[in-house]
Design goal:
The complex is a heterodimer of chains A (about 110) and B (about 110). Chain A has strands at about 5, 10-15, 20-25, 30-40, 45-50, 55-60, 60-65, 70-75, 85-90, 100, 105-110. Chain A is an all-beta fold and about 110 residues long. In chain A, strand 4 and strand 5 (about 45-50) form a beta hairpin. The relative contact order of chain A is 0.34. The chains are: A mainly beta (about 110), B mainly beta (about 110). The interface between A and B is medium-sized, with 24 and 23 residues.
């Protein structure tokens, strides 16, 4: 079983729709959870950062962490064509500062 | 600030050739990392450094070497290039151990033929 599972299948949604992305993981020691956004031919950039379980909201973006289920989610409300990118989940135990990344999920928002 | 700068942006190597991928950051970050990204495979850590003079292996270090003589620079050396090293390479940095918001460079696309 891979440490972080993320379904890489492309996701196409109409503009204004809610985008829902998720990752599952097997390592119960993970405490820090991140979502990175990567535009085509660019490096990833940090989008959301959450420590332990709970929700975090930043504008149109909401990150959720459920440690009991080993499941994290990212929601994008009122999606825009500029949200078209690949979204990677990442997580760490802390201390040793090693990030484990998911495969990434390509999102296309159609105008 | 320029952030993390990687050169070159693209390179084609022949099997058996060697090259150095350059990475420099101007944010005075202590931690630096090299990742490779293969299609549909996510990011894999090759090597990382916690400060000048200190480096350590990541998940996929075979075929690569690194050095960290200054805080700013973290070059990645490929010796005897193989087709399996065809990938996009990203350098990243962070300020401290518990800083998980890495700053990534824009990547180097390497093809080995």
């Amino acid at each position: 079983q891979k440490e972080v599972e993320q379904d890489p299948g492309p996701l196409s949604v109409p503009e204004g729709a809610i985008v829902s992305l998720n990752c599952t993981y097997s390592n119960s020691a993970f405490q820090y959870f991140m979502w990175y956004r990567q535009y085509s031919r660019k490096g990833p950039e940090l989008l959301m950062y959450t420590y332990s379980s709970g929700n975090k909201e930043d504008g149109r973006f909401t990150a959720q962490v459920d440690k009991s289920s080993k499941y994290i989610s990212l929601f994008i409300r009122d999606s825009q064509p500029s949200d078209s990118a690949t979204y990677l989940c990442a997580m760490s135990e802390g201390g040793n500062n090693r990030l484990a990344f998911g495969k990434g999920n390509q999102v296309v928002v159609i105008p | 600030n320029a952030g993390v700068t990687q050169t070159p942006k693209f390179r084609i190597l022949k099997i058996g050739q060697s090259m150095t991928l350059q990475c420099t950051q101007d944010m005075n970050h202590n931690y630096m990392y090299w990742y490779r990204q293969d299609p549909g495979m996510g990011l894999k850590l090759i090597y990382y450094s916690v400060g000048a003079g200190i480096t350590d292996k990541g998940e996929v270090p075979n075929g690569y070497n690194v050095s960290r003589s200054t805080t700013e620079d973290f070059p990645l050396r490929l010796e005897l290039a193989a087709p399996s090293q065809t990938s996009v390479y990203f350098c990243a940095s962070s300020y401290r151990e518990d800083d998980y918001g890495y700053t990534f460079g824009s990547g180097t696309r390497l093809t080995v033929v």
